[in-house]
Amino acid sequence: MQWRKNRVAIGAVVFVALLATTVWAVTTRDRPAEDAVVELPTISIDEDAIVAMEITRPGEAGAETVVLEKVEDEWRVTSPLDADADANNVSSALNRLSALTPIQIVATREENHARLEVDDAQAVTVIARMGDETPPLDVRIGKYANGVTMIRIDDRPEVFGVKGSARFPFDRDLKNWRDRRVTQEEAKTVDRVTFESENGDFAFTMEDGAWVPEGKYRRIEDFDGKQVAGLVSTAARLTASGFASEDVSNARAGLNEPKGTVTLYLSTDTPEGSDAEEGGEPDEGAQSIVVLEVGDEDEESSEYYLQRKGDPTIYLVSSYLANRLQPGPEAFERPPEPAAPPTPQALPGQMPGQPNQLPPEVMQQLQQQLQQQQR
Count of CB atoms within 10 A of residue 314's CB? Predict the structure, then answer.
């Protein structure tokens, strides 16, 4: 019966022992074994030496892998299709790889991979290959927390931290790895433009530094050449929001008979002796002409198909851009003058035009009320 008298003391001892064991387990779960030595690895990559990147990112429909390769000093998407790559996004990824330097050891055991999002199901995996005999870099990029991003290198179980957000430059879908620039012209090099759509046909020429409508097209009341300049700038530097699906043909996109057409005539490439130089109709086959064609609306995205003549790529643009490329006559009219701000009304006893001011006795009453509320 003696143990019953001491059961409270025995229970306290057992509780303290369990508590100590739990604390030890929590504080040592991420520590390496005493006889193990983990050193921070050194990643030294010259971004100019990288010739290919294979990037796999998780997604709701499964993992998506994009392969980028340098072809004749130009980066291209080579898988799952062949297309020009977005130079800015590729440059951002290369710069981040060259600065991927571990600064701390975050964890050493495999059971922490899922929590730190560096497991195969959650991490963005990047395999960078060099042009020489340097082994490829295989890195899994995971969670960002407390100013560092968690990464795993090759098949090592350790999780390292690198300074800053390292995941964003690689966590992009296929659309954002492709070059979405449709046109890259300087608006100042355009000296003639035409618009053709169900909203009307218009043609404008640059004369003495100002846009003027051509005589054979209908006159526009209260014409404003600045509106033409704005539309020319839009068409000359056009970036798409995305791309049509691979199974969308020109016929399905409504591009065999476009709903709208914009033609830019560039002065810099006008051949000597051409019709354009002599004031006639420019040669449609000349390199100085850029033709944009607007097709049907994509029912899934509510965006519109667009194609640059001579390029098989079918882009998607917003309805706002599609409408700007199919202007009506009102698009070239001078916008109404903004309404003048209302004139303040004078209080009784004030001269017109004087700023509104409260009488001194009213101000004194307000101050007294505020002082009473503060008390």
Answer: 22
Contacts of 131 by beta carbon, 8 Å cutoff, 6+ apart: 49, 50, 51
Supply 29's token pair. Answer: 């779960």
Q: What is the mean pLDDT of residues 6-31?
A: 53
Query: What does the H/E/C string look like for 268-312?
Result: CCCCCCCCCCCCCCCCCCCCCEEEEEEEEECCCCCCEEEEECCCC
pLDDT of 222-254, one tens digit each? Answer: 899 999 999 999 999 999 999 999 999 999 999
* d(C-alpha 266, C-alpha 21), whole Å: 78
Distance CA 226, CA 220 (A): 14
Paired residues of 252 in beta bridges: none
pLDDT tens track for 259-316: 999 999 998 644 444 444 444 454 544 448 999 999 999 999 999 999 999 999 999 9
- Classify the phi-psi angles of 349: left when phi > 0, otherwise alpha if psi is within -120 to 50, otherwise beta: left
